[in-house]
Amino acid sequence: MWGFTGILGKLIDLDALVIVWHRLWIAAVAIAIYMLWIKKFVLPHGKNLVWAIMIGLVVALHWLTFYTAIQLSTASLGILCLSTTTLHVTWLEPLILKKRFSWIEFSMGLLVIGGIYFVAQDFNTNELKALSIGLVSALCAGIFSVSNAKLAQNTATPSLSLTELATGFIALSLFFGFTGKLNFELFEMRSSDFWWLLFLGILCTSFAFIATIDIVKRLGAFSVSLSINLEPIYTIILAIVLLKEHKLLQSTFYWGAAVILLIVIANGIWKHKLRKITNTTYGNAI
Asked: Domain containing 156: what range?
């Protein structure tokens, strides 16, 4: 489902701002219905509510820059930029979660930059602009991922997500209001765009999120996180099959993509082994 998010940025014939606005309200309504169904409609309060609102603004900016990068270039480039999120997480975790700085993770992040160099070798001005915007999207993704990890320690994840999605929707609605664009023209679209937006908001956002919570309980965090790290592969394969993007991309793009994807997978495997060593040491100590 997440692999489709980049593809939909190309399939939906709407401005990036409009796509994000619809994605936010559709996903928020879907999660609200889910929370009412399980009878756990509770929102964050106090400092957690303030932080959730701030993160909601970052989420909206992340999606906006993500879809803008895709519309300026290709879905493959947009999702590949998102792979650099791990680099930002390396320095954000020590700041926000007070974790020890990892030079190994930082080195992997530098190798990712090397992969980006290969990707961008034959880019024109418009594609370089898309690359820059895509990297800003990755920074936003790193900020809200690490911040959510901290907030989720004492806040239910559905209520956290609902608050963030609603905040992003309200912020974009205010922007449309101030610019005179908050009107029924936002709902003027092709029927195919309407169905793709429902698919994006309900299945690729709300359902994927809720399903992941249950899957983590059944398969474990490593299996799920490794699957999520493979999202760029899903997207690039879908882009080749559905959008014929292999005709638009040079061989250097795939060399750079291969470097980035191998580092992402190696990072997941290394963390899994590190976690096993830590758990074994702790168990022996007990």
From this structure: 3-285
